[in-house]
Specification:
The protein is built from 14 helices and nine strands. It is of the alpha/beta class and about 350 residues long.
Length: about 350
């Protein structure tokens, strides 16, 4: 895995802070010294969770979106590692692996003429897919639970495919998102990860939770209707504006649809109100609703991975808040899994 950059002592010294009388998450979390035989390392490890980042926003650019998701891993990692180590956070059950780095692709992009950029972006997303798929498959095959942070929502494809290959079966997916990401098979980008996963036979049942009615095309709604035995959704407007169903009831309905087999939990930060993201929204779910969502679905034994994507970086203050959000969601998921 040439793109995998493991956590180094230098990185830990740069982003962590010790405090007298306290023990921090990073002091009890697990790390690896090299990734040359990751399969054996994971098989021999007693941890339950393997956390890694994806440093890219090429998939977002390929979908004509706003960049910025490339560096989210850094702010999330800093926040997570500086949490308190206690019976609630339990870092000893966690391996902080590192991140998938795509500096080589960005260097190649810098030489491409503007009228060829979109084609190049979409070709590069296929390369990113291969890396994410391989790493997720290795983790799941070892019996561990991946927690995937950063990058565009194009990486849902690799998370789904990697899990499916490791389990040797189709899996289901639950997407907490303002958008369906069911765009046409027009070359890979952040808007069609689920389309490709369905088309290629890795994704079985798919539920979109909190879809925004204003940003879903007629063509996609027709596609969902034609595939209603395998694709279902609720809308943000029905839940929050018109209050046709409670958040709790809607969650139970979604759970009933996807929990019959292994499933991935997808959190797109553009579904959360006022969170910096590639498609930031002034009207979305609250942070606390998102945390309850992750806890509820993470508590099921068939929850196979957590993928949090599309958050973007900005100024120091907003980065700190984004880092806190992602570390809350990670620990909420890990705590929920204790009883799964």
């Amino acid at each position: 895995m040439n793109n995998l950059q493991i956590i180094t002592t230098k990185t830990l010294e740069r982003i962590t802070n010790k405090r007298s009388g306290e023990t921090k998450f990073f002091e009890h979390a697990k790390y690896i010294s090299n990734s040359s035989d990751l399969t054996s390392i994971l098989a021999d490890s007693e941890v339950k969770f393997v956390i890694f980042g994806i440093k890219e926003d090429i998939g977002v650019l390929a979908n004509n979106g706003q960049p910025g998701a490339k560096d989210t891993w850094e702010v999330a990692l800093k926040s997570l590692l500086n949490l308190q180590s206690n019976q609630f956070t339990n870092p000893s059950n966690t391996l902080i692996l590192g991140h998938l780095d795509f500096t080589d692709l960005y260097n190649a992009i810098s030489t491409i003429k503007s009228d060829h950029l979109q084609h190049t972006y979409r070709q590069h997303v296929e390369e990113i897919d291969q890396c994410v798929t391989q790493l997720v498959s290795t983790i799941v095959k070892a019996g561990k639970t991946p927690i995937i942070i950063g990058g565009g929502h194009n990486n849902a494809y690799g998370a789904i495919k990697g899990s499916s290959l490791a389990l040797n079966t189709k899996i289901n997916a639950l997407n907490f998102d303002a958008h369906t990401d069911l765009r046409a098979l027009e070359g890979r980008h952040s808007g069609n990860g689920f389309s490709y996963a369905i088309e290629e036979g890795y994704l079985d049942r798919y539920y979109i939770f909190g879809m925004h009615e204003n940003y879903t095309s007629k063509e996609i709604l027709k596609y969902i209707e034609a595939s209603k035995s395998n694709i279902k959704f609720n809308t943000f407007e029905d839940l929050i504006v018109r209050k046709k169903s409670s958040f709790k009831t809607a969650s139970k309905i979604a759970m009933g649809f996807i929990s019959n087999s292994k499933f991935g939990i997808e959190i797109d930060c553009d579904a959360i109100q006022n969170i910096p993201s590639s498609a930031q929204t002034p009207s979305g779910f609250s942070v606390n609703q998102t945390r309850r969502f992750v806890h509820y679905f993470g508590n099921h034994p068939n929850a196979t991975y957590l993928h949090i994507c599309e958050a973007t970086t900005g100024n120091e203050n907003s980065n700190a808040q984004t880092g806190k959000l992602l570390s809350y969601l990670m620990t909420d998921f890990m705590n929920a899994q204790k009883n799964a």
